[in-house]
Design brief:
Length: 368
């Protein structure tokens, strides 16, 4: 039996680890996974409900890190994870995505001569002002086995002198999670009633998520985005589950009045299955999330990404995603086009078939 520490810390990690843990469970005689939750997302609405809804087993180890600056949080995770490595003595660690927990645990493992497996390797925005980009690049340089979601990711890794024998194209575990959970979602009418959302879904609606520092930490940018969303909502009601970080910034900057539009409907963070159910039936999504760009592509839902770049270019070239940045005119132009012409063309990318985690587990069995 090989012992594998699997690291999660933030909401996107939970969705990526869920199908991997299920795949390990189907071959319990080979790999013993130890689920380590750093506690990077500590809010119950961003954390506990996800474990329940995604059928993720309770963490074996919880580091209880909580919020802080990037440097302090990364350092705190490293300090708390090192004793785990020493006591558990795993054969390898598995990290997913690009959050602070990813790079922090990879650094500890590398310094402890423990092998590192990175799921979702090779994605690049080529914008080093993004903390996630730094996390991605450094984690990939430290990793011994790199699982990629798309062909371009391998090109990125080869350009950074990663050995080709370390790279395995397996597809996208986010889509595994999506397909697995889509059948568990409630009808939209039920979701709207349960969350007290005052819209008529028959007439159509859009969905908004917003949390990146580049969008919410600057009062001018956040004001412009909220004003633009309010304008769009006059043509299409928008459901806006507000991330705790975003809610705090809106309060700090005195922008609460911009959420008082009848058709820009703010809610607390929604349970994942409710968010997924709403996403699957909406007319468009406006987001700065990475994972939602992928989910909307798999669902065939038009997506406006409120960023200047994306580490998931396949959602632009093959999927349903459009980069609109924070420019009001561009956002309105693309949203009007979608409302006029309906769904945009796109296709589900190669190996986004719901079986990526099975391929990962199979390759790990031999590799370990």
């Amino acid at each position: 039996m090989k012992k594998l520490c699997c690291i999660v810390g933030a909401r996107p990690n939970f969705m990526k680890i869920a199908p991997i843990m299920r795949a390990f469970g189907e071959d319990a005689n080979t790999i013993t996974p130890i689920l380590v939750h750093t506690g990077q997302h500590y809010d119950e609405s961003m954390n506990g409900t996800f474990f329940k809804q995604l059928d993720i087993p309770a963490p074996d180890i919880h580091l209880n890190v909580g919020s802080n600056s990037h440097a302090m949080q990364t350092a705190d995770i490293m300090k708390r994870f090192e004793p785990v490595i020493q006591s558990e003595n795993p054969d390898a660690i598995l990290v997913v995505g690009d959050v602070n927990s990813t790079i922090a645990c990879a650094l500890v493992a590398a310094k402890s001569n423990v092998r590192i497996i990175h799921v979702e390797a090779g994605l690049r925005s080529f914008d080093r002002k993004m903390p996630e980009e730094i996390n991605r690049i450094l984690t990939d340089q430290l990793s011994d086995l790199l699982f990629t979601t798309e062909r371009n990711a391998e090109i990125n890794l080869l350009n950074e002198n990663v050995s080709p024998e370390k790279i395995q194209f397996v597809g996208n575990v986010m889509i595994d999670n999506l397909f697995h959970n889509l059948k568990k979602t409630s009808e939209v009418n039920e979701i709207i009633a349960r969350n007290k959302i005052n819209i008529d879904p028959v007439k159509g609606y859009g969905l908004v998520t917003l949390h990146r520092p580049s969008n919410v930490d600057d009062s001018g940018v956040l004001r412009q985005l909220l004003e633009t969303l309010s304008e769009i909502s006059r043509r299409l009601p928008l459901i806006f589950p507000v991330h705790p970080r975003t809610a705090k910034k809106i309060e700090d900057y005195g922008l609460n009045s911009l959420l008082e539009s009848d058709n820009l409907i703010s809610t607390p963070p929604l349970p994942y299955l409710d968010l997924l159910g709403l996403m699957s039936k909406c007319k468009m999504v406006l987001t700065d999330s990475g994972g939602i760009q992928e989910e909307t592509t798999a669902l065939g839902i038009p997506c406006l990404t409120l960023r200047e770049n994306t580490e998931r270019p396949i959602t632009l070239t093959e999927g349903t995603n459009t980069l609109v940045g924070t420019d009001r005119n561009k956002i309105l132009e693309v949203s009007d086009e979608i409302l006029l012409n309906g769904k945009c063309a796109g296709r589900v990318p190669e190996l986004w078939d719901g079986h990526a985690a099975i391929r990962i587990a199979s390759k790990l069995k031999n590799w370990l």
